[in-house]
Amino acid sequence: MYTMRSMQTLIPKLESILGVKKSPSVQERELFKKTQDFVSFITWIPGLRMIAVSNSLAMYATHPGSDIDLFIVTAPRRLWLVRTLVLSIAMILWVRTRTWDEAGKFCFPFLITERNLSLQGIALENDIYLAYWIATLKPIYNSFDTYGRFLRVNEWVNISINKEENEQYLLHTRDS
Prior knowledge:
This protein has helices at 4-18, 26-42, 55-58, 79-92, 128-136, 146-153, 163-166, and strands at 48-54, 68-74, 106-113, 138-143, 172-174. It is 40% helix and 18% strand. The chain is built from seven helices and five strands, in the order ααβαβαβαβααβ. The protein has a single domain (4-174), classed as Beta Polymerase, domain 2 (2-Layer Sandwich), CATH 3.30.460.10. A five-stranded mixed beta sheet has the order 3-2-1-4-5, sandwiched between helices. It starts with a helix and ends with a strand. Helix 4 links the parallel strand 2 (68-74) and strand 3. The protein is globular and about 45 Å long. The protein is of the alpha/beta class. The mean pLDDT is 88.
């Protein structure tokens, strides 16, 4: 695994390849607002623990055709219920990606349960992209300190994470 020092030297190269900006563009701020609106509409779903923006939007590297990728964490034995409800609501509201119409719409590529918060088992050897992906997640909804627990069990990434900057879009935190 990379050391913290080697990760810090590789990150600027990765950011250059991905087209990462230091702050969100106007379009990206609009996409974050759209995400906050959608997430505030679905926080009632039983077993929903965390929703975070991932991939290009979280990294401030979108282009005009970008979709909005959401990483979802559920309570144990609630993944399929949460997935079914979230996808159904997104389809009804016509905000879910389709192959022919995805710009500015939601994609749900990654769902896990609280029992499997560590992503080390899926990491490739020296997986800088996964480490950077974890470090750039932007939580929108967080209950029972799921985001904090996720970061703690994924400390193996050896990358400094600006938790406060990542939490700037956080709408809801629920502890009961």
